[in-house]
Each structure stands twice: as C-alpha cells, then as structure tokens.
Amino acid sequence: xxxxxxxxxxxxxxxxxxxxxxxxxxxxxxxxxxxxxxxxxxxxxxxxxxxxxxxxxxxxxxxxxxxxxxxxxxxxxxxxxxxxxxxxxxxxxxxxxxxxxxxxxxxxxxxxxxxxxxxxxxxxxxxxxxxxxxxxxxxxxxxxxxxxxxxxxxxxxxxxxxxxxxxxxxxxxxxxxxxxxxxxxxxxxxxxxxxxxxxxxxxxxxxxxxxxxxxxxxxxxxxxxxxxxxxxxxxxxxxxxxxxxxxx
Length: 248
Description:
Helix content is 74%, strand content 0%. By secondary structure, it is mainly α.
C-alpha cells in the first residue's frame, strides 16, 4: 500500500504538466559553489521547481482522485444527521482516504504493470514510463468528467477544435474533472439531506402544535434521525453507492 501511495503521488505530479513536455529528473548533490556553466544553473532551477511541486503534492493527490467526492459526501452526511463533530474529522478523512485507495486500486495496478515495473526493468524509457503512467489517470478522470465542464475549459483555453477526447490536454482535463466531482458530490448530498429534512420539519411542526416554542427542534429530532440512520444501515448504503458510482 505504501509503495502504491508513492507511485500515485509521483504520477499525479507528472500529470500536472502538458503531455508533450519532456521531464528529466536531475540528480541532487548537496554542496555549495557557483554555477560555472549554463547546465549547472539549469539543474539548480530544476531542483528548485521540483521542490516547489512537492509542496503541492497533497493538493494534487486530493484533486485528481476520488477523494473530493467521497469526503464531501461523508461530510454532508454528518451534517444531515445533526452531529457536526461526530464522526470527528480524522475519521471522515481517514475513511475517505481508504475508500479513495480502494477506488483507485485498478488505476494504480495498471500504472504499476505498464509503467513502473517496465521502467525498473529498463524495458522502456523514462518518457515512455511517464506517458504510460498518465494514461490510466486520464482514463479515470475522463469517465467522471461531464461534457459540459470539459467544453467550458476547452472554450476558455481558446482551443478551436479537438479531433477526439484523448487529445484534450491534461491541464484542461484536471479542472473539468474537479468541477464535475463537486457537482456530483453536492447532488448526492442533496439526496441524503432530504429524509433528514423531513424529520426536522415533522418534529418542528409537532413542537409548534404542542406550544413548545422554546424547545430546540434540532435537539429533539437528532435521536430520531440517528435511529433511522442506524436502522437503514446508512454508512453501508452511502459507502456502497459511492464506490459503485466510480466503478460503473
């Protein structure tokens, strides 16, 4: 699992650059001295850029995988139940990460088989390994990206025409994917909120009809929402729906 995590991290870092850019990783030697040649200066700049990208690595991993949709849906579920601090954030984020790795496992396996292992065995070049690594991630993002969002960023990038979907640059695909995931997550969250909203309305109506105007409806409704959520096995249904939404 740890090796797959670092593998995914490295691939997603490369996916942020256009596919046509050749990326060479410089060797790092610690020392002090002046840059006597243009090549030495260029290597220093490459190291600086690489370190800068590494600081953005967590955000890149979060935004180009299934994590965005999963963590938003789980957080909205917690809010709908009426317990904003239970489960705690650590549990929500941890469960989201575990489900993300489960969903991304086929993609990671494909990257390992077509890029990582052949490169370790010197069967392909570095550029071929990068291209083979980006392809599975792009395939995953294409499956979850809606045409409307993709067309929006193609238009804003002032690209006249794309012969086929695979010609879409990665820097256009990533924001379209994120926007599609946000839309899908909030649609799912709205559906989850509806039954809990009905309970809140019913409890508030009963309290008003009984003249208990100063009794907080949320306090009375929360046990009923918890009972309903437990009886329908809510976490099982939500997790099942989230995972199947990516697999299908």
